Amino acid sequence: MDNQVFWGNTLQAYAMFGGIILLGILFKKIVSRFLSRLLFKLFKKFADEVRIETFVALLLKPFEFFIGVSSLYLAINQLKHPLEVVIFHFTKAKVVEDFTLGEFLDKIFLFFIILSVFWIFLRIIDFVAHVFMYKAAKSENKADDQLVPFLKELFKFFIYFIGFFVLLGYVFEVNALSLITGLGIGGIAIALAAKESLENLIGSFTIFIDKPFTVGDLVKVDGVEGTIEKVGFRSTVLRSTDKTTIIIPNRAMIDGVLENLTLRNYRRVKFNIAITYETDSETIKKIIAEIGSFLATHPHTSDHTVTFDSFADSALNIQILYLVENIEYNDYLKIKEEVNFKIIDFVNQYGSEFAYPTQRTVNSTLLKP
């Protein structure tokens, strides 16, 4: 009975086909978890502070994909028909050869199996980077927080690069070395196209060597201000004060004018207040003295200057300049607010008023001869 043939295959072959697929579906997750936990033993000492569930969660999907593809490949190979059907002919070394459907499926499955293997390698790199980031977070050195994401991207790039040529060699049977040497003019064109990417890569190395900033620093680059969140393979990610994500190529980070605002000792505040022309000189002197006295005694301000600056069209301008200690940005805003409220109190205290643009009209009857 098992040897009876239906549509080119025996009942036994169909039973094996269905059984392997069923086993693959039923035990795919169980086997994936087992392999993930088994592989974790290689990293147990290195990742003693990280839970095993983190590693399993990263490796579960690629292992399931690998087992699923492998199960389907083994199941299909239990059948003879229609795998033996010739789909086209090709000439190799002046000999005409047949290319069957089975050989075509072998190439497809090999492609996906290689893909799943390199997917596993990429997830392992993600886990190693996760462990390093966990350890870096516990240290006071912010350079570690900056270096780990960069190295993670760098190693993943090499995995992509190797995987690409492995697929070319094993699936498409392309001699990678001959391909590289035979690019010729095309290679020059690719090199020119990759010029900017290479400059950004060199820029990232320059950032790590010179260390003009680290993750968490507040910087300003060509007028763009934000906090460094990540230095990547190609670009640097900043977070602006309004929580906008800003991505700047690494080349621009080293070529442009860069200010590390975190490294400064003070923040400079400079502005003018305008009071009305009806304010007499003695009142102005008292207002200036009160503002100066308040800034001199404030615990977080220094190097203040308060002067009667200029005569404007509709106001008398008093210039105020002071430095605030380099503290958290929100605290800095609170100090500015405190100073501004005090200035309002001093101006009102001495009977003066803040000016605003006005136009004086002249009575036309006074101009008549």
Short recap of the structure:
By secondary structure, the chain is of the alpha+beta class. Helix content is 53%, strand content 20%. It folds into three domains: 5-193, no CATH class; 212-262, Roll (SH3 type barrels), CATH 2.30.30; 265-349, Alpha-Beta Plaits (2-Layer Sandwich), CATH 3.30.70.
Write a structural description.
The protein is α+β, with helices and mostly antiparallel strands and 369 residues long. It folds into 3 domains: 189 residues, no CATH class; 51 residues, SH3 type barrels (Roll), CATH 2.30.30; 85 residues, 2-Layer Sandwich (Alpha-Beta Plaits), CATH 3.30.70.100. The protein is 53% helix and 20% strand. It is built from 10 helices and 12 strands. The strands form 4 sheets. A 5-stranded antiparallel beta sheet has the order 8-7-6-5-9. Strands 10-12-11 form a 3-stranded antiparallel beta sheet, covered by helices on one side. A two-stranded antiparallel sheet has the order 1-2. Helix 1 runs antiparallel to helix 2, helix 3 runs antiparallel to helix 4 and helix 9 runs antiparallel to helix 10. The radius of gyration is 36 Å and the shape is elongated.
